[in-house]
Amino acid sequence: YFLSKIGILPFTNTLYRIFYSVYPKNYNFLKKFDYFLYDFRINDEHNFSKCIIYKSNNYLNLRRIAWVYSWDNSYIYSSIFNADYFLVWSKELKKIFIDRHKIDNKKVIVNYPIQFQYLKKIKNKKTNVILFSCSYGSSKKNPEDDNKIYVKDDIEMIHHLHKIIKKNKLNLKILVRLYPGTNYKKKTLRDLSNLNNVDIDLESFNFFTKGNFSKKEISDHLTKKNLLINNARAVFSFGSTFNIEAAILDKPVFHI
Q1: How far apart are the first and last CA of the chain?
Q2: Which of 3, 41, 49, 249 would be 9's cystine partner, CB 3.0–4.6 Å?
Q3: C-alpha pair distances (Å), 59 with each of 27, 28, 62, 108, 155
Q4: Alpha-carbon distance 98 to 195, whole Å?
Q5: For residue 18, is it left (φ>0), alpha (ψ between -120 and 50) or beta?
Q6: Nearest 5°: phi and psi at 40?
């Protein structure tokens, strides 16, 4: 990316556009549509999604809309910047997106964050549970990745909070929400489980290993997630989306 910024190499977007202009596959069914909505954050190697997005350039009557789904997607240098419009979910994110990626102001549209519609306030009794949401993931290609500095920060902070609670004899438990898809070693999870004031939400973590979900499964998962946040006294993390969701539900948020 840096070499592209200073003009030594072409941008990834340019290389992919050239590659897919000669890629031997067409998607003529796109002629049936007026709009094509896709995830902005498709910046991995060659895949079906990237292919169809670049091929959509060949259909001149098709308006392409890139959905910048999550707050952190605004910071990602995606290889796909050839959309007609970009959807973000706040004026501040629009400003960040335009400043960072030099996108035409008229192309960036502020839309309601529909991903938070599932959040509902629930009246319940106060609990002694604080929720720690892990913020960093790792690659499936490397089973040792939970030793990498960012993932390791999550683990060390959980141990640190455990010591604070124990030292001050606080009647609190830590419920840990692991980062989906991360290759935590068995020893890492075992050490956390052995802490007497720490519980791990393995049900939610294992949910994401399935890969394909029915609408009911997704709905049930979000209902449980909503309950999880509502039941927490407070939410701690290094910057998880849980912080935003907890704030929407008026929960105390500790952004470490």
Answers
A1: 29
A2: 3
A3: 9, 9, 6, 21, 48
A4: 45
A5: alpha
A6: -60, -30
- How does DSSP assign the chain, residue by residue? -HHHHTTSS--HHHHHHHHHHS-S---GGGGG-SEEEEES---SSS-HHHHHHHHGGG-TTPEEEEE--SGGGGG---S----SEEEESSHHHHHHHHHHH---GGGEEE---GGGTT---------SEEEEE------TT-TTGGGSHHHHHHHHHHHHHHHHHHHTT---EEEEEPPTT----HHHHHHHHTSTTEEE-HHHHHHTTS----HHHHHHHHHHHHHHHHH-SEEEESS-HHHHHHHHTT--EEE-
Sheet with 35-39: strands ordered across? 35-39, 63-67, 85-88, 108-110
How far is Cα 51 from Cα 23, in angstroms, rounded to an integer?
A: 8
- pLDDT tens per residue across span 48-97: 677 888 888 888 889 999 888 887 777 766 656 778 999 998 899 899 88
Q: How far apart are CA 118 and CA 228, in angstroms?
A: 13
pLDDT (0 to 100) of residue 144? 47
What does the alpha-carbon distance between residue 243 and residue 159 come to, in Å, rounded to a whole number? 20
Task: Give the count of beta carbons closer than 10 Å to the beta carbon of residue 60.
Answer: 5
Match 């720690």 to its residue by tokens: 132
Q: Assess whether pLDDT exceeds 80 at residue 114.
A: yes
- Write down the residue that tokens 């049936």 correspond to: 32
Mean pLDDT of the residues in the chain: 84
For the segment 19-25, the average pLDDT, to the nearest whole number, is: 75
